[in-house]
């Protein structure tokens, strides 16, 4: 048999046959060993993979099982053992004090925080009817990115739906309670109001398509009319109690537009009459409102960037601009976002009068250390009185919102040699085939136009509209139809009856409602974008030609330049000046912007980040979105909704120099 081997005889040891047999045996043994080794190595690889997958699945299901079986109070128990006792949520605290629902509340979400769903689309969007394209899991970005970009963009000529596409806002409280799973926006505030006794009969989410210009939300969806009817209904079914309106972020501008629209005569307005707001609104509690605009909106429109993008470039240079896979991320973002007309509502307003000029700004002298910045700055200058240049070097020219080069940002205006870009002749870039699908208006400028922008060197708020009209004329043609960014000389001029002025607090009057109250609620204590150092991009045709210079920065903790961005106090998105000026000065008392003397209050919330990950996003945050979970803010909202006045809340509460900064702004009141 083949499996039996003859035992070698002693006399065969030295013979030729025995040598041959030994050789065969060795080969057979080595072959078997190699085969066993290969099988053992192959088995080990598969075994390791299966073991890893099994461990992950087992751990996940075990954690899920424990999460669903443990007492609801267990996570809080663990957190309190580590961080100490947690305070009562505002809703519980107010219930203990006997507060009850009185005024109906209306939430007005800001840009990007409201969900959008598909009602009609192209073939690539098959199966997505009434599925969220914005908000939720954002799964379609990864599954079909080109299709998603196509459906999230608006028509570049009309600012409305492209042919064959209908994307509409999600309705109800779920429209903006969570931005994504686990990332709350309005959910914490809604939950605390519910603890007091609120429900859907006296809570309403005024959802709208935040991509559209404000007036176009009425043209396309009749959103303003539906908000008007819902507020009237809520006041009626709640025994005539006026509504408390709570707008957030860009929603502040949207509701400012609404208050003018609702009282303006039809067909441009809602025809509610000059006393509609007085009859239906108890208070407007603006949260993080960019009433004077936000420099961050400018950088987004100019180069599809912000501080975070500049920081990412510093960590991983070239990734965002890499064309290896033809991803062209920022170009796609720019092409899409420039069709969203609402973004133009947040371009800084008021020009140099509000935001400062080449050599001054209201916040001059500010340094990042919140509590002691004045002392630090003053002591520095006092120690260097013999050398005035050293003191001037510490002065930051925040009024230069865009500077091409750090030297330009720091040089006195008398030493700047600027060439006006407005009369420059544009060319045209012959972009290669890889960038045809992300064609932007920069391709219509040519190298001569791009060079002209850089040679102007420094741009103040008074130059920004002209700058955007030069680099993005199609976008600004739509934008100038729906928005204005100036400062009115005479508010009685008939031209200000047009809707393009209604969302600009500096070009419109508040309603005649002397019993109404307006609050500015916003976070402070976080470095917030104020102005930028730019450079020309190293590449030309297929890329956005301008970039924030992330190499421009200081190591000194008391200097506000980092990654090419100068910062001031604010909530990380909106500077305190923009959020607070109107309630601090523009609307304070009877002014031409507030002819009926509506009472105004400022409530600042000093940022206190969570001390550990168990606290999540914290209960004392002042960040632009996280403030929606700030216990102090929620308590203030509940008390006003329950009937308290601004005086009963304690009046103004400020941590910044908002009143000092406002006094530096010289406008006619």
TrEMBL record:
Keyword hit for Acyltransferase = yes
Topology with respect to the bilayer: Single-pass membrane protein
Q: Give the record's keywords alphabetically.
A: Acyltransferase, Membrane, Transferase, Transmembrane, Transmembrane helix
Q: What class of enzyme is it?
A: transferase
Where is the region Disordered?
Answer: 1-37
SUPFAM superfamilies in UniProt: alpha/beta-Hydrolases
InterPro entries reported for this sequence: AB_hydrolase_fold, LACT/PDAT_acylTrfase
**Residue ranges crossing the lipid bilayer per the database entry:** 45-67
Protein name per UniProt: phospholipid:diacylglycerol acyltransferase
Which organism does this sequence originate in?
A: Centaurea solstitialis (yellow star-thistle)
